[in-house]
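Reply to thread "Modeling small-molecule complexes from scratch"

Following up on the discussion above, here's a worked example others can learn from. I took a protein sequence and the SMILES for zinc ion and predicted the complex. Inputs first:
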Amino acid sequence: MQNGENWQIGEVEIQRVVEFEAPLLDPFVIYPDADAETLARHKSWLEPRLQDPETGLLILAFHTFVIRTPRHVILVDTCGGNDRQRPQKPRYHMNSWPYLENLAAAGVQRDDVDFVLCTHLHVDHVGWNTRLVDSRWVPTFPNAKYLFARDEWAFWEEEYKTERYTDDPYYEDSILPVIEAGSAVMVDGDHVIDDWVRLSPTPGHTPGHVCVHVECGGAQAVMSGDLMHHALQCAEPDWSSCFCVDPAASAATRREFLATHAETPTLVMPAHFPSPGAGRIIEAGDTWRFKFSDEE
Ligand SMILES: [Zn+2]
């Protein structure tokens, strides 16, 4: 059931809280395998919701899903955050989004949150893990346990020690302070949070990427993180993004995910799809399409 950008999965409520949403990425930049002919073929269903007709840029959102089970308040992915030094990534540099105000408007105070879950540890999924207080980065949600998939953490800890690591200090300002505060819990990729919410490993985009499954009373939703960035990848599942650590594994995981959830009632909630941010996978020829929940 959907009410605006709130969904009910049995007894569990899911809300979407947006940091920002805009025409943002050139399809040829984010998808190195993209070609003009294929893009032209998809134009009729991409515009205007998924691709800006003026600029041709793909429209992406950055949002958090708030899950309220009968026992817990859980945040999935924490966007880019405020006050960050990101000289290499201007999109995330020194922002001042009204994100906490948006969370409060959704009825969530910082103290209310029991778990924070990042589908993976990229810069746009960890930002609000912390906030700047008196020149120090501290956990934004003081009562929360932050769940990090063990494989994901191990990968980025290793990256951090190498020259490949970005100059943008997101590991230092968004991940380490959580660990140093004793708020992090390393979990397996198939960790069970409570009777309604569990994880599943979906490696490829990053090695420890996880999906978050909500199940109650026969209804299901799945937060799929960056398993796909844009609905174009339902139609072209072999197009992995330039951000994928292992493009071949990413494509294989995406195909399996799409085939599993196609033509089922499962509500699919990716990390970057524009408003309303959720929908279902439907079959279309040899591949798939995304049907947004307000198109039902
Ligand atoms: Zn992302």
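What I'd highlight from this example: The CA atoms of residues 228 and 254 lie 7 Å apart. The chain has a mean pLDDT of 94. Questions welcome below.
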